Amino acid sequence: MRKFFNILLLFLPIWGLQAGNIQAFLSYCTFQSPQDGPFLESYLSIYSKSLVFTKNSNGKFQGTVAITMIFKQGEAVKDFKKYELKSPEVEDTAKRDFSFIDQQRFLLPNGDYTFEFSIKDINSKKPESSSIENLKLLYPADKVSISGIQLVGSYSTSKTPTILSKSGLDLVPYVFDYYPPNENKLSFYTELYHTDITIGAGNKFLISFAINSNETGKSLPEYARTKKEVAKPVNNFLQEIDISKLPSGNYNLIVEARNQQNEVIASNSLFFQRSNPSVQFNINDLQELVVENSFVGKITNKDTLKEYIKCLNPISSEIDKLFIDNQLPQMDVQLMQQYFLNFWIKRNGSNPEQSWLAYREQVLIVNAAYKTPNKKGYDTDRGRIYLRYGPPNTITDQPFEASGSGMFIGDEQSSGNYRRDDYGFVPYQIWHYYQLSKSQRDIKFVFADPHLSQNEYALIHSNLEGEINNPNWQAELHRQIGILDKDELAPNGHYGGKSGNLFLNPR
User: Which residues, at least 6 apart from 491, have a Cβ–Cβ distance to it below 8 Å?
Assistant: First the structure.
């Protein structure tokens, strides 16, 4: 799990966020210790320039944040830490364009937890930012299991064990799930437990590492690695992948262990984003593609081809989107045919037409259901999510919800200027997916229509990595009819209504 904390949580590079509130990025990873049992490591990066620095007793300037991390099962607190974290000192507040990292460990037995996190700038009057995340620790004693995948910024051999140490190495965490153009190596660490029990101590098994496209699910062969290992209580792996030629896009890092029968006995995955504008779509790859005897050869109308290519946006990679945006206006019919055929061959080499027809049927559905006066259905947020992830298992539709909190404004006795505030929520929907993949369960999307427009619902929050994540999403739903506005109510959380409960318990 990786999150930004800056009121609106977006999976973007930290330097792309707005100033004003704390700019922080939190991630965590779980492991199993043979001596102490399961534990969770948290990794927090804070951008110093987003903090208020004050002069300390040394005559230097320093920022301070209050951190609270609580792990609950129901209402029972199983572990927590509440502490103040200080930034490095600086002589001049103009010289604070850097980030600093904090790492913590929590011993947590196997089970389901609610992880509550809050952060507050001690020297600022701005309210704290907070978030709640559900997590599960499951490391059985008699079965093979794999730890979380920790992204690593740098590593060295341990001289004196510290909180950074694991398996004789000091691992400095790479807290983000975003790799900018200047980062050309992806390093990660993971552990495999109890292969000796399942496979037999001393026997060999295979461990594989791969990168696949988040859009297509296809593995990229040039980034796949496989190695033989000997079964033992704990196998640890520190790997490094050259991503200098990996195009911009959304990806999954996949780790799998296979037995001697080539059966997957343990697996885990980690989402990450790559920005690499130097790698462009190679138009020369299309030149030799023959379309005459394919299903695309029958599509000769330029406007039809253009529309078909546009509707691919929800399932396109970043490099495809960039190519379409830049090249589509000047593409001739043949090049459009070649591009369109190539797109579907990459997804289904044996029967690209079948995949296209199945997708086109879904496009017709979203165009009918989610179109607006100015957009095709596939260009809307709901249409994009539907086409990318399929129809949701449930949709909670709230076209209008009144709060009715009964709050009073002002001092009734002294001013007489009071009345019950009358406010409600903008129309919203919560889409719930039971499972998108092995590692993506209980996924939710919140769409809102803040302008009460004609069927135009915007995505304002999701718990799926790679999508907008906004802990303050309920404030986005709030619409004031009386004299308070959502900004006045948001710091105290007086939203009322059912939205929070509906998100936790979709219907």
Answer: 127
In terms of DSSP bridges, do strands 178-179 and 264-274 run parallel, antiparallel, or are they unpaired?
A: parallel
Kindly report, residue by residue over 91-140, the tens digit of the pLDDT. Answer: 999 999 999 999 999 999 999 999 999 999 999 998 888 888 889 999 99
pLDDT (tens digit per residue) in 409-466: 333 333 333 333 445 678 999 999 998 877 788 899 999 998 877 788 999 999 888 8
What's the Rg (C-alpha) of the chain?
26
Asked if the model's pLDDT at residue 233 lies above 90, the reply is: yes
332-389 pLDDT, tens digit per residue, is: 999 999 999 999 998 888 999 999 999 999 999 999 999 999 999 999 999 999 999 9
Q: How high does pLDDT run on average in the chain? A: 85
CA distance 95 to 72: 39
Q: Return the number of other C-beta atoms located less than 10 Å from residue 314's C-beta.
A: 22
Residues 398, 332 share a domain: no
DSSP letter, residue 253: E
Paired residues of 68 in beta bridges? 82, 118
For residue 385, being part of any structural domain is answered with no
Phi, psi of 382 (to 5 degrees): -65, -40
**Helix (H), strand (E), coil (C) string for 490-505:** HHHCCCCCCHHHHHHC
| Each residue's pLDDT tens digit, 383-418 | 999 999 999 999 999 887 655 443 333 333 333 333
Which SS3 state, helix, strand or coil, does residue 207 take? Answer: strand
CA angle 145, 149, 154 (to 5 degrees): 140
Is residue 60 in some structural domain?
yes
Which of 338, 370, 402 delimits the end of a domain?
Answer: 370
Which of 208, 311, 271 has its CA nearest to residue 436?
271
Closest by CA position to 466, among listed 201, 62, 258, 177: 177
Residue 380 lies in a domain: no
Pair (152, 273) in one structural domain: yes
Q: Structural domain tally of the chain? A: 4
Same domain, 103 and 165: no
Q: Are 267 and 255 in contact (CB under 8 A)?
A: yes
Confidence band for 479, pLDDT divided at 50, 70 and 90: low
**Residue type present at position 195:** T
Quick one: which of 448, 331, 318, 314 has its CA closest to 383? Answer: 314
In the listed set 120, 139, 158, which residue is the last one of a domain according to the structure?
Answer: 139
Angle of the 333-347 helix axis to the 302-310 helix axis, nearest 10? 40
The Cα-based distances of 56 to 48, 53, 91, 121, 122 in angstroms read 16, 9, 11, 15, 13
| 11, amino acid identity | F
Cα gap 10→477, rounded to integer Å: 18
Q: What is the pLDDT of residue 284?
A: 80
